[in-house]
Amino acid sequence: MNVSLQNIDKVSALLTVDMVKADYQENVEKQLKKIRKDAQMPGFRKGMVPMGLVKKMYEKSVIADEVNKLLGDAINKYIQDNKVHMLGEPLPNENQQQLDFDTQDEFKFPFDIALAPVINFTLSADDKVPYYDVTVTDEMVDNQVASYAQRGGSYEKVDSFDAAQNDMLKGLLCELDEADNVKEGGIRVESAVMMPSYMKVDDEKAKFAGAKVGDTVTFNPNKAWEGNAPELASLLKMDREEAVKVTSDFCYQVEEITRYMPGEMNQELFDQVFGKDVVKSEEEFKQKVREIIANQFKSNSDYKFLTDARKYIMDKVGKLEFSEPLMKRIMKTNNPDKDDKFVDENYNQTIDVLSWQLVRDVLVSQEGLKIEQNDIMEEAKAATRAQFAQYGMLNLPDDMIANYASEMLKKRETVENLADRVIDSKLADVLKKKVTLEHQAISAEDFGKMIQPEA
Question: I need a surface site. Which of 71, 186, 211, 423 has the fewest CB within 10 A?
């Protein structure tokens, strides 16, 4: 068997496999003997079917199978041994002649190969890329501290209602008739819970101002919530369709007023957020919060740096050359349910993405970057911590984080995404040391506007 590669141009080649009978005959004979051993036909004992009959029935299909196996192995071995940097899979040449296993015993298989473009570039301190340092303000720290305090608070009963505090009321709700008396047989809801601060009409909301336990307030729920079906159905304990039809006034006897009180700035809150005795004063607490915010912005700054570095590097590398006909055939092969219009419309975007992947592979190879299984696990843990941190849960046990991360790694797509993030993170760290960073201080608001289109 002979395998040869002929370069058509810089980005395409013709790979040809020539196969003769001696290449596959031995394997064919072995397979036919296995078939004969297990063959059962009328008039013959098992394993005693004449080989001539076995060949007549099975030889053609066996030859086809063995030729295909040898063909695949030969192509893979040649590509690996000769380090052919190809894109996609070998494509059967459009001039491939129809095979006839009845009359042929020698075969020629030509394949079109899309070659990856040669990429040569270097980076040094002469290359400059902007790096944005987001300013962490005292207001950010105070807001985050207040958020932690809010989460660490508790509900307490108070005597007087204050809408500004988002107080919650519980009481007896009764429908009134036209004379403002409790309507006989009307709607009655015991222990009705509501928060007047969320009413949409200020005039109705104002009726509850300063209300105390034991007071009775007359208001119109339909007006208060502007006929909002879910709100009315929840309050009146009835179907939405019926609730929106209720337009009468109601009296509400306040039985209980509850207010959410933020947690105090004390050791209990410090321990709840960061773990026991990690911080021991309000000053240390705020400093720790500032570090967390800064670290969150650092991840975003690294992301922005990598996108800017990508653009800089791609401009330096220049437009890469590809065989458009072969690349479109590969796209069509990878998307068998799509038509030529889809391929044409998505070709340029696909090439842009592929170009960066190839350049990134060069960078990864130059720097010897590798992904270990532990890297992916640590990335999964980091993603888990970030997810819980959104809800103020910073002090979770390591085994709990590890369990959640392990669940994430059960999905192949998630593993691939995490591996991609690991590479990007390692690449960003390398590039930050390799090029000159042009540091620029920026506010969180301006930075958010800057990265919004990219995100």
Answer: 186
